[in-house]
Amino acid sequence: MSFSSLFYVLFYKPSMQYSGSILQMGDVTVEVGDDVTFHCFHPKDQMNRVMWFKQTLGEKPAFVASSYHWSQDSELHDEFEKTKRFKVNPGLGSFNLTIERTQSDSATYYCAGSFSNIVYFGAGTNLVLRAERLTFRPTLSDINHIL
Question: How many angstroms separate the CA atoms of 138 and 10, rounded?
Fold first, then answer.
């Protein structure tokens, strides 16, 4: 066996197969006005770019944020940057999205990663917002008005 063959066998590590593993947390229910953080985990050595998308029921997905794996720089897109309520926290093998002071943010949030120009999506996390409970105690005049 030649030196170059031996070097190839001992030290060459062919490109790893991408497993498609984008892991997201399960569905979340919070009160309107609360902060919420969505966690996304991805294979740290196999991603060129990681992204978040928001899909409101009946609408096309909106591009929320992205980060290039090797630089750890992140960017919020369009209205998500303008509201100042959306934040991302990129890390080695993770890309978390926080929404501060939730409002009309009910939707499914998808974390995705690209590798070799193919985009892989997580299963999605549904955000359900509960309105504050209002206590309504009808008076006798309210009841008479209804009847």
Answer: 80
Q: What are phi and psi of 8, to 5 degrees?
A: -60, -45
- Determine contact, residues 65/37, Cβ cutoff 8 Å: no
Q: Which amino acid is at 22?
A: I
Cα–Cα dist 63/78, whole Å: 8
CB atoms within 10 A of CB 13: 5
If 0-12 CB within 10 Å is exposed, 13-18 middle and 19+ buried, where does residue 52 land? buried
Residue pair 26/82 in contact by the 8 Å Cβ criterion: no
pTM score above 0.85: no
Tell the burial category of 15 from Cβ atoms under 10 Å away from its Cβ (0-12, 13-18, 19+).
Answer: exposed
Nearest to 36 by CA among 25, 50, 22: 25
Closest of 99, 127, 109 to residue 33, by C-alpha: 99
Mean pLDDT taken over the chain: 80
Residue whose entry in the numeric block shows the structure tokens 């609408």: 59
**DSSP letter at 145?**
H
Report percent pLDDT > 90 for the chain: 53
How confident is the model over 48-64, as a mean pLDDT? 94
